[in-house]
Hints:
By secondary structure, the protein is mostly helical. The protein has a domain at 3-247. Helices cover 64% and strands 0% of the residues. The protein is built from 18 helices and no strands. Helix 9 runs parallel beside helix 12. The relative contact order is 0.13.
Amino acid sequence: MTIEARRATVRRALGAGLLTAVLALTGLVYRADTVFSVPDPAGSSYAPAFRDERQGPGAMLNAHDGQAFGSLALDPLLAHPDRWSGGRSEMAYRAARPLLGWAVMLTSFGSRATAEWSLLAWTAIGIGLMAGAAVMLAAHWGREGDWVPLVLLLPGVLIQLEFGGLSDSLATALALFGLVWWLERRDQWAVVALCLAALTKESTLLVPLALLLASDRKRARSLVAPFAVYGAWIGVVWLRLGVLPMKGHGGATGVPPGNVIEALASWGVPEVVAAVTILLLMAVAWRRAPSPEVRWLVGLSVLMALTLGPAVLRSWDFARPLLPVTMVGACLLGRSIERSGDATPWVADDVVAVR
């Protein structure tokens, strides 16, 4: 790929990311400001930040895990586990995903009201970054990326637009950037992105694991870094709270096939649509896989899905941890780009020179 073509891809990624982020933020603000209200905020509350909010963004965040990230942003030193309904174990489980809380802390300045809107903004930023990363990944694989704003319709994104304050798109964006940079042999940038993704949501560790399994031994050594960084942070949480983040509100893991059978009994139309969409995009990723790491990612994602707990599987929440593989499938769903001239994939300049 020529320098000009590379710049054009970056411009398209920026444009798609900005458009998607603006659309996402518009939907989040509208829903929070004019639609969302709850009669009993304490009914779904397990974290302290927005416990008394009955309407507006606080109530919207309190209805899902946005309350956890808001609470961590307002208590970054993990000093008040007694304010969580599950005590230290609940706080430790949520604190294992610190990056979104840190971002909100930096943009809310300790204000609860500011933290509410900051969480919605970071949700939209994450969705926009994920869209931009998808354009770059699709271009690397020689696929069109004009469809990218339609990521707003994917199940794993729709649930974030419904509640706000969730870290899944931000984590997926970082994981996709890590993937595309690794494929371009920009290994240092890739490892940094994958480390940040792991600190945003641990399920994204499937991406460096897939890359590790598909890469040669010498190059794969650096992929240990995301696991080491995540493990080091878990050690910090354990030293601070005295418990490991093994189980949170409702439980996140289960044993197949009992967990799946139990969850299927409560499925409705949204869960069926989400499952079919994800399975179809996984099939696309497997069928059109341009390199072994994609099939490794699909296989690992299936294994993870089968071990999710009933609390996750019984609703379309299961679409959130599967967002990385869903996005990879979507990137491979686009039409092939008609290349002219140099058909070399977008890789680092020094690698092209070697070729």
